[in-house]
Amino acid sequence: MQPDVAVRDRVRVESVPDELIASITDTATVGTVGSVVQAAFATLGEAIGAARAFGDGPPGLIVSELRDADMTLEIFMPVSHAFVAPAGVTVRTLEGGPVATVLHEGPYDEVGRAYRILTAWMADQRRVSTRPPRERYLNDPHTGAVPRTRIEFPIA
Asked: Cβ contacts of residue 24 below 8 Å, gap of 6+?
């Protein structure tokens, strides 16, 4: 299904700064992604809290690889400073730069529509992604709010 052309107007090109993050890399399927992400956020929260390193900005994930039914994810949270991380947690700089971005408001299982909008926009504009796309979770749906997810495709 081709995304509505008018919806592509919601795509913005912005520059995002480099960001220090703590992350966990794991694999998931469409059926397990929610529980994998929740477990990673819990582990990251404990590690970052112990280091008193909570940073500003929304948490997120990077889909670094898709294989049939499996995907490799890097789940991350911003941190205020580098710290000695426990096993399984990495502290690194997430490279900034120009991104094509769109906001998805709605259930996480419908976020694919935002990816299709961005992919169609990039084809229209003859742009290519330079690194894997990122999802940023702008609010906590456990509060009853409608989930707001910012999708970013790093571009040249």
From this structure: 40, 43, 44, 74, 75, 76, 88, 89, 90
Q: Are strands 60-67 and 134-137 parallel, antiparallel or unpaired?
A: antiparallel
138 CB-near residues (< 8 Å, 6+ apart) = 58, 103, 148, 149, 150
Q: Which tens digits make up the pLDDT trace of 76-130?
A: 999 999 999 999 999 999 999 999 999 999 998 899 999 999 999 999 999 999 9
How much is the pTM? 0.90
Residue range 51-69, pLDDT digits in tens: 999 999 999 999 988 888 8
